[in-house]
Amino acid sequence: MQNEMVSSKSLPKVLSAIADAKSWLIFQSIAPGFVESDVLLEKTNLSRKQYYSRISAIIDAGLVTRKNKKYCLTSLGKIVYGLQITTQNALNNYWKLRAIDSFDDVSEREQEQAIENLIDDENLRELLAKKCYDISTSNVVEGSSCIHQQAEERTHGNIMMVEDEPDVLFAFKTILISEGYNVDTFADSFEALKHFVKLNRPYYDLVILDIRMSGMNGIQLYQKLKRIDDHVRVTFVSALDAAEELISILPDLNPSHIIRKPIAARDFINVIKKAVPYVPMKVTNDSG
């Protein structure tokens, strides 16, 4: 599932989601701020079926999210919207762009002068002044290859644990490693979040979070991780009987994914095995 998510956000999918006029109108209408479905339905004059199929595709492409029953652009959506505005400006200057194309038999300096004289938009002038090779096409290709390579190289049994008590962190890590899991541990929730973001891809099969931590607590970290990767699996640990409180705050949380400290090593591993659908190669002390 997580590897599928790596490839699900692709350029063709993004462009396809806003390709037809009505989809683009929905996307454009959401851009200024938070917009309700009824407003979008009235503006687009679509049937509910037509509207929901389009808004679902736009959300699935990662361009739009829903907060408090209203739609707004994601960070990716804002970038794509800005690029679409640049494209629209180019279309508005299409006649002038055709004129610039007619200067293909003159010197580079004369071409630059023609761009300067004909195009008022600074972004368009900057793009036209660049060579095709310089417009980061190589970076796009390399980035795409990198994503596929990362997906292929991804191992299983990877766990991140965040716990602000070093002794507890060390004990849990020792248990997990002895069972064959790859474990990254963090005593600081902010450092854990920074590491998770820098990976720039799904990597962990499970994240184990202490609930009560200084700075950013486990629930706050959980919410941020879910905003980044809504497929990430999370198990909580706590010295308090916080199951009811957690489920009231996070109704989608499975009660079996809440661990009460202290816990025996075997019971701890049994919870982890239920949460992670993967049996790692157990580490053994084979001296023979």
- The CATH architecture assignment of the largest domain turns out to be 3-Layer(aba) Sandwich
Approximate helicity band: 55-70%
The count of domains is 3
Radius of gyration: 25 Å
Estimate what percentage of residues fall within beta strands: 5-15%
CATH fold description of the largest domain: Rossmann fold
What is the strand and helix layout of this fold?
Layout: H1 2-8, H2 11-17, H3 21-30, H4 37-44, H5 48-60, E1 64-67, E2 70-73, H6 75-92, H7 94-101, H8 108-118, H9 122-129, H10 137-153, E3 158-162, H11 166-178, E4 182-186, H12 189-199, E5 206-210, H13 218-228, E6 234-238, H14 243-249, E7 258-260, H15 265-275
Task: List its salient traits.
single chain, alpha/beta, Rossmann fold, 3 domains, 5-stranded parallel sheet, two-stranded antiparallel sheet, 15 helices
Question: Could you explain the architecture of this structure?
Answer:
It is built from 15 helices and 7 strands. It has 288 residues and is of the alpha/beta class. It folds into 3 domains: 78 residues, Winged helix-like DNA-binding domain superfamily/Winged helix DNA-binding domain (Arc Repressor Mutant, subunit A); 41 residues, no CATH class; 120 residues, Response regulator (Rossmann fold), CATH 3.40.50.2300. The chain has a 5-stranded parallel beta sheet, with helices on both faces. A two-stranded antiparallel sheet has the order 1-2. Strand 1 and strand 2 form a beta hairpin. Helix 3 packs across helix 5 and helix 12 packs parallel to helix 13. The longest helix is centred in the first third of the chain and has 18 residues. The protein starts with a helix and ends in a 13-residue tail after the last helix. The N terminus is likely disordered.
